[in-house]
Amino acid sequence: MKDMLEIKNLHVSTADGTKDILHGVSLVIKKGEKHAIMGPNGGGKSTLAQVLMGHPGYTVTKGSIILNGTDITDMPPDQRAKLGLFLGFQYPVEVAGVNFANFLRMCVNEQKAEGEKKVSPIAFRNQLAEQAKKLGFSDELAKRSLNQDFSGGEKKKAEILQLAMLKPQFAILDEPDSGLDVDALRYIANALNSLEHPMGLLLITHYQRILAYVKPDFVHVVKGGKIVASGGPELAEKVEQSGYENLA
């Protein structure tokens, strides 16, 4: 179906087959919905994010991933991105010598349909400056190499700026709050809430604190490679109070 990311009975192991990680995860995310995934370390949260984007270190042994009616289970990451899927990394990597703005312009142009006019460097710089201003992102950072010598907060801000420029249909954010102080956390949350294009959001986090700023429609708890509980925002509050021990 259109405007929907469907995860159907997903079983995943490491690429070498030595470890099974996910054991039948099923989830439907509709465009415009915000879903949060919580869970203890080693429960499979980040694995799910990586698998959805096509990380070669994992193998889907059963189940499927459907994006807007298209089965993307075996697609490489670049094709998934062109179809409208975005992954924000828990630990964004530094890429020395690759200008951030030029990298982002290339990504935007790669999304264009065949025959569609590409964005010129000057036009893109103007668009980038406008979007950066909306998000309170320093224009100086966009002139530097991708994530090089960025602080942890700056790297996360750069991820949100990429998200704003690329306008994906569905975004997966893997622990966007990790390593952030309170001010940076509020910035990230406000930037997410201010995005103007509708999209489906899957936000992975350990803690309830970011969910106080980015209000989810649904909260799911992943433990032992399975979704063991689903509910509304109140589920995050319950987890914050009593932890994961009492969840099946």
Short description:
33% of the residues lie in helices and 29% in strands.
Q: What structural keywords apply?
A:
248 residues, alpha/beta, four-stranded antiparallel β-sheet, 29% strand
Basic shape: globular
Mean pLDDT: 91
Tally of contiguous helical segments:
8
Question: What does the largest sheet look like?
Answer: 6 strands, mixed
Q: Give the helix level as a range of percent.
A: 25-40%
Distance between the termini: 31 Å
Describe this structure in words.
- The chain has eight helices and twelve strands.
- It has 248 residues and is an alpha/beta fold.
- Strand 9, helix 7 (182-194) and strand 10 (200-204) form a beta-alpha-beta unit.
- Helix 6 (152-166) packs parallel to helix 7.
- The longest helix has 15 residues, at 121-135.
- The mean pLDDT is 91.
Question: What is the fold's blueprint, element by element?
Answer:
Blueprint: E1 4-14, E2 20-30, E3 34-38, H1 45-53, E4 58-67, E5 70-71, H2 77-82, E6 85-88, E7 95-99, H3 100-110, H4 121-135, H5 139-142, E8 145-146, H6 152-166, E9 170-174, H7 182-194, E10 200-204, E11 218-223, E12 226-231, H8 233-242
Parallel strand pairs: 3-10, 3-11, 6-9, 9-10
Antiparallel strand pairs: 1-2, 1-4, 4-5, 7-8, 11-12
Helix pairs in contact: 6-7
